[in-house]
Amino acid sequence: MLILWCSMKLTEALLFNTPLLKIAIKDIDILFFCIIFVKFAHGTPNFIQKRLRAMDNPHYNRIKAVLAEKDKTGTWLSEQMGRNIGTVSRWMTNKVQPSVEQLYDIAKYLDVDVRELLVASK
Length: 122
Description:
Blueprint: H1 2-15, H2 25-42, H3 46-56, H4 63-69, H5 74-81, H6 85-92, H7 100-110
Helix pairs in contact: 1-2, 5-6
């Protein structure tokens, strides 16, 4: 029962961006115990790991969004550029950033201004 409660609270916090601080103070000790138990007894579940990585991963480019706006796919872009689909996928998920030259090539293939491929700083 305790593990189920912990899973529910952690899932709520991670999926709905509910701050853990909103959890009642009396529940903090139980939650802390659950986090330690789940972490060391079972390892961190994959969906939690992915969510935590996504929260730490800043977005610099909008390649995925612009491809969607143009009804194009990452596969299409990789074929146009002669690049591996894995490379394009990492660009789309912001795990790796393309070089400036590659951004200009992407803009050319998508027929957009290169600035549309970048997240605005302000």
